[in-house]
Prior knowledge:
The protein is mainly α.
Amino acid sequence: MFKFTIFKHLSSTEVVSLYGLKLNIMQEFLDVTDEGVASKSEVKEFFTGVYTYMFMALLVSGVVSWYLASSGLFVEWFLNFETGTVSPLFYVVAFAPLGLVLLIQFKYQSFSVGALVGLFILYSALIGASLSSIFFVYSLGDIVTTFFVTAGAFAGMAILGYTTQVDLSKMGSLLYMAFIGIFFAAMINMFVGSTWLGYLISIIGVFVFTGLTAWEMQKLKAIANDPQMAKENKQKLSLMGGLTLYILFINLFMSLLHLLGGRD
C-alpha cells in the first residue's frame, strides 16, 4: 500500500512541477533571432553551462534519493504507519518544488546567478527526496536500466532538436496541448488511483517529453546564437535551460520507469 500511494503522488507532483516552469520562463525568449551569428566559442560556452547545470542537478537528485532510501530516513520522515499513508511532510517536500519554480519564474531577472544556482540546487535536492520512493517500488536493476534508456532517448532527441532545420514550434504547441491534458489527468489520477490511466499517462508522457526535448533544444540553440544578448542574461538562460532539460529528463525517466520497471 505504501509503495503504490507514494508512486501515485510522486508521478503527479513531477508533472505539476514541470507545468509551473514551462509556461513562462522560456516563453518570453521564443522570438530571439533565428539566424545565428554568435561565435562558436560563445555557443559552446552557453551549452557547456546548460549541461553542467543539468548534470549537477541530476547528481544532486541521485545522491539525495539514494541516501534517503538507503539510510532509512525516507521511511522515518515520510511514512505514517498509524494511518497507513504518507506523512504530511512528504506532501510538503513533494509540492515545494512547485513553489520554487514559481519563485524563479517571477523573480528570475532580479536574482543573481549565484542565487539562481542556490535555488536550483535546493530544487533538485527536493526532487531527489521525492524520487527516493522509487527504491521501495522498483529494483535497482530496473532503475539503472531505465536511467540509461532515458539518457539514450533524451540524447537522441536533443541532437535532433539541435541539428534539424525544420521549425518545431508548431509541434511544440501541439505537445503542450497534450501536456496540459497529461497534467489534469495526473491530478485526477492522484485521487482516483487508476492503474490503466497511470499507464496511459506514462505512454503519452514518453512522446510528449521526448518531443519537448527536441523543441527546447531548438529554442536554446536560437538563444545561444543571439549575439546581442547581454552576457549575464545568457548565463541566467543557460541555467534556465539546464533546469528545463533537467525537468524534462526527470519526467521522461519517471514515465519510462512506470512502463519498463517491474515493481518489487
